[in-house]
Design brief:
Distance between the termini: 84 Å
Mean pLDDT: 74
Number of domains: 2
Strand content: 35-45%
Radius of gyration: 34 Å
CATH architecture of the largest domain: Sandwich
Number of strands: 13
CATH class of the largest domain: Mainly Beta
Largest sheet: 6 strands, antiparallel
CATH topology of the largest domain: Jelly Rolls
Number of helices: 3
Length: 219
């Protein structure tokens, strides 16, 4: 093939033609977006993304996922527009097999205001429950008369529930035990006693102890 040099005027003409062709192609592509303003796209397993028009009989292949995105909007915004629709709610139910109304509302959680007590150990608090499991978060301080691993023991109605340990490398210094959490089996409705006791650790009026009780109605 013989390549010929195109004079400067010819190049300008060719450039104009190319721009017109691209403009026409863009207009045709935009025209394939349905009137409802939704772009249908197929996302393949290999990461490819292809737009299609279901009104023209097009569809995704078996290995691709159909994505719906309103034209001109980011995917997150598109989801926000339809997140509360009945169809999306039904799809979410199909994913986990649980209707959204079956989740426990926050208003049904009983929380006991965090309580504090001054040492020495043992210290205790009375709590009211409604016959459900409870989660107890607790922490406190103490000192050791000998080095080694010492514990705070959490009990409910006198039954040991959890040990919170701390290794003392020196004696006589008050140290803070790490905050710990424990779950107790469903308790009968009524008044119960939560206590923190010493297990190898010493305490006095300089020490402080804290609990927070959360009751989770699961029945």
């Amino acid at each position: 093939m013989i390549m010929r040099h195109i004079p400067g005027r010819g190049w300008r003409l060719l450039l104009v033609v190319a721009v017109v062709v691209l403009a026409i192609g863009s207009a045709v592509a935009y025209a394939t977006i349905p009137d409802d303003g939704v772009v249908h796209a197929c996302y393949g397993n290999n990461g490819s993304l292809r737009a299609f028009d279901p009104s023209a009989g097009e569809e995704c292949r078996n290995s691709a996922v159909d994505l719906l995105t309103p034209a001109g909007k980011a995917a997150s915004a598109a989801h926000a527009d339809t997140a509360d629709s009945a169809s999306n709610a039904a799809n979410a139910d199909n994913l986990d097999g649980v209707d959204s109304s079956g989740f426990m509302p926050a208003s049904s959680i009983y929380a006991v205001t965090p309580a504090r007590a001054i040492g020495p150990l043992p210290v205790s608090w009375s709590i009211e429950t409604h016959g459900n499991p409870i989660v107890v978060q607790f922490s406190g301080t103490g000192f050791a008369t000998s080095t080694g691993l010492k514990f705070l023991q959490l009990s409910v109605d006198g039954n040991p529930l959890m040990l919170d340990g701390f290794h003392f490398s020196e004696t006589g210094s008050h140290r803070t035990f790490p905050t710990a959490s424990a779950t107790a089996r469903p308790l009968a409705a009524g008044t119960h006693t939560v206590s923190i006791e010493a297990s190898g650790v010493s305490s006095d009026f300089n020490d402080r102890y804290y609990i927070t009780v959360l009751e989770l109605p699961l029945g």
